[in-house]
C-alpha cells in the first residue's frame, strides 16, 4: 500500500468522525491524553482564542519567533490549501507519513474511549490529540502556538497550560453553541485563562473587556489590554503597507511596517507583539528589534485580503461573519476608495446572513451571489433574496461567476474584484486562482 493510499484512508477515518458533531467538554480529551502519557504537559505553548484575528495573530508571532531562530509549531483551523497545514512546524505542514503513523498510534485509544461512558471523540478532538502528540514527541518545536477551534472554556485545546493566553476579539459567531450575547460568548472565550498566567487581549466591547478583567483578577492573571496596557498608534499608509508605533510597559517601537492589509491587522500585529514582549521579559526568549521588524514585514496569511491577480485586480477574503465583513469593508474603503467594487459572495447557511449581506450591499457597486459544494452552504438564490442591492445577480456555478466577472472587468484600472465569504469557499477559490 502506498503512503498516499494510507494517508487517504487515515484522513477518511478522521473525517468520518464529523458524524459525531460538536461535543463541548474535556472528558474525552483527558481520557485520550492520559492514555498517551499526557503529551500536552511537554509543551511550551501560547493559547489563542477569539472570533476573528486568531490566524493572523498566530502568523505574526510565528514569523517573529522564526526570525529569532526558534522552531515554531502551529495548530490552526480551518485550512486553505491542504488539510495537513492545520498542523505545521515553521510553516511546513505535517507530512503524510507522520500523520499516518500518529493515526495508527491514536486510533486504538479513540476506539477505547468510544466504549466508555464518555462516548465517541469528535473529529476536532482527535485532530487536537494528533497535534499535541506530534508537537510533543515527533517534531518537538521549541514553542507551539495553539488556536482554539470553537469558544475556549470547553474547547478541545483547553487542556494545555500556556506561557501566555491571547484573546484577539469577541464577535457574535457560533451563537447556537457559545451563547446569544457578547457577555455569554466572552465567558466561553475567557475560559482559556489559567491561574497565574498572563492574558493579552484586543477585545473592544466594554462589557467583554470587563468580563475578561474580572476573570483574570479572580485567577491572579496579569492582564494586558490593547488601548490600555499596550497600544498601536500613529497608523499610516506607506507604499501600500500599514506603518504604526507600538507601545507596551516593556518597550516602544516606532515605524513598524506590515504588508498585511487593513487597520485590523495592525491590531493583530500589536496583540502578537505584546505576547512576544512577555515571552522576552519573563521566559528569557531572545528576540531582537531586527527580528520583530523583519518578522512583521514577512508575515502573510492565506485568504485574508489576499491579492491573487493584478489583471483584473482581484482579492480573496474569508469574511465569514459580521465582524469579518466590517473589517473587509473598512479595508476596501481604505485602499480602494475610488474604484468600482465587484463582489462575489458565498456563505454557510448557519451564519448571520441578512446582517452580513446588508453590510456588503453598502460597499458593492455590483454583487454576485453563488454557491459551492458543501453540506452547510447557503443556496445562491437565498442569498440573493436577502440583498437590497440594485445591482445584484445570481450565478450558481462559482467558477462561472468568477470567470464572468473577470471578463467584464478586463484590464480596467477603475475596478476591483473581491471574492469573499466562507473560508471553505475561499479555500476552493484559492485552488483555482493560485494554481
From TrEMBL:
Q: Which reaction does it catalyse?
A: 7,8-dihydropteroate + L-glutamate + ATP = 7,8-dihydrofolate + ADP + phosphate + H(+); (6S)-5,6,7,8-tetrahydrofolyl-(gamma-L-Glu)(n) + L-glutamate + ATP = (6S)-5,6,7,8-tetrahydrofolyl-(gamma-L-Glu)(n+1) + ADP + phosphate + H(+)
Question: Which terms under GO biological process does the entry name?
Answer: folic acid biosynthetic process
**What EC class is this?**
ligase
| Residues in Mur ligase C-terminal domain copies | 303-422
**Example GO molecular function:** tetrahydrofolylpolyglutamate synthase activity
SUPFAM superfamilies noted in UniProt: MurD-like peptide ligases, catalytic domain, MurD-like peptide ligases, peptide-binding domain
Q: Which keywords does this chain's UniProt record carry?
A: ATP-binding, Folate biosynthesis, Ligase, Magnesium, Metal-binding, Nucleotide-binding
According to the UniProt entry, what is the EC number of this protein?
Answer: 6.3.2.12, 6.3.2.17
- Domain named Mur ligase central is located at 152-275
Superkingdom per UniProt: Bacteria
> Mind telling me which GO cellular component terms the entry cites?
cytoplasm
- Coiled coil segments of this chain: none
Q: Which cofactor does it need?
A: Mg(2+)
What pathway does this protein act in? Cofactor biosynthesis; tetrahydrofolylpolyglutamate biosynthesis; Cofactor biosynthesis; tetrahydrofolate biosynthesis; 7,8-dihydrofolate from 2-amino-4-hydroxy-6-hydroxymethyl-7,8-dihydropteridine diphosphate and 4-aminobenzoate: step 2/2
Family label: Belongs to the folylpolyglutamate synthase family.
**Quaternary assembly:** Monomer.
Q: What's the protein name?
A: Dihydrofolate synthase/folylpolyglutamate synthase
Organism placement in taxonomy:
Bacteria, Bacillati, Bacillota, Bacilli, Bacillales
Amino acid at each position: 500500500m502506498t503512503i498516499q493510499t494510507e494517508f487517504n484512508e487515515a484522513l477518511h477515518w478522521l473525517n468520518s468522525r464529523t458524524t459525531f458533531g460538536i461535543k463541548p467538554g474535556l472528558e474525552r480529551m483527558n481520557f485520550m491524553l492520559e492514555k498517551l502519557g499526557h503529551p500536552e504537559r511537554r509543551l511550551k505553548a501560547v493559547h489563542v482564542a477569539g472570533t476573528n484575528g486568531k490566524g493572523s495573530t498566530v502568523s505574526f508571532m510565528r514569523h517573529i519567533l522564526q526570525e529569532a531562530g526558534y522552531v515554531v509549531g502551529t495548530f490552526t483551523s480551518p485550512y486553505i490549501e491542504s488539510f495537513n497545514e492545520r498542523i505545521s512546524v515553521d510553516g511546513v505542514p505535517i507530512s503524510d507519513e507522520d500523520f499516518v503513523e500518529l493515526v495508527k498510534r491514536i486510533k486504538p485509544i479513540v476506539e477505547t474511549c468510544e466504549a466508555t461512558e464518555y462516548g465517541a471523540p469528535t473529529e476536532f478532538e482527535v485532530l487536537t490529540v494528533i497535534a499535541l502528540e506530534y508537537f510533543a514527541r515527533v517534531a518537538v518545536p521549541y514553542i507551539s502556538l495553539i488556536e482554539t477551534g470553537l469558544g475556549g472554556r470547553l474547547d478541545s485545546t483547553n487542556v494545555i497550560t500556556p506561557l501566555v493566553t491571547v484573546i484577539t476579539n469577541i464577535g457574535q459567531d457560533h451563537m447556537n453553541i457559545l451563547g446569544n450575547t457578547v457577555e455569554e460568548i466572552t465567558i466561553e472565550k475567557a475560559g482559556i485563562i489559567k491561574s497565574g498566567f498572563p492574558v493579552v487581549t484586543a477585545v473592544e466591547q466594554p462589557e467583554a473587556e470587563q468580563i475578561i478583567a474580572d476573570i483574570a483578577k479572580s485567577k491572579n492573571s496579569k492582564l494586558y489590554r490593547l488601548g490600555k496596557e499596550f497600544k498601536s498608534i500613529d497608523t499610516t499608509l506607506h507604499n501600500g503597507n500599514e506603518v504604526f508605533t507600538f507601545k507596551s510597559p516593556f518597550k516602544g517601537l516606532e515605524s513598524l511596517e506590515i504588508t498585511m492589509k487593513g487597520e485590523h491587522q495592525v491590531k493583530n500585529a500589536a496583540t502578537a507583539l505584546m505576547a512576544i514582549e512577555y515571552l522576552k521579559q519573563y521566559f528569557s526568549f531572545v528576540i531582537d528589534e531586527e527580528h520583530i521588524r523583519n518578522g512583521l514585514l514577512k508575515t502573510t496569511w492565506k485568504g485574508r485580503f489576499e491579492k491573487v491577480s493584478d489583471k483584473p485586480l482581484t482579492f480573496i477574503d474569508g469574511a465569514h461573519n459580521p465582524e469579518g465583513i466590517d473589517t473587509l469593508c473598512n479595508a476596501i474603503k481604505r485602499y480602494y476608495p475610488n474604484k468600482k467594487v465587484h463582489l462575489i459572495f458565498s456563505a454557510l447557511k448557519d451564519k448571520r446572513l441578512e446582517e452580513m449581506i446588508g453590510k456588503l450591499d453598502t460597499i458593492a457597486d455590483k454583487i454576485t451571489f453563488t454557491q459551492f459544494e458543501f453540506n452547510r452552504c447557503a443556496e445562491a438564490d437565498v442569498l440573493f433574496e436577502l440583498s437590497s442591492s440594485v445591482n445584484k445577480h445570481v450565478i450558481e456555478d462559482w467558477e462561472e461567476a468568477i470567470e464572468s466577472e473577470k471578463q467584464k472587468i478586463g484590464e480596467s484600472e477603475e475596478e476591483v474584484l473581491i471574492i469573499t465569504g466562507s473560508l471553505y469557499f475561499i479555500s476552493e477559490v484559492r485552488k483555482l486562482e493560485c494554481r
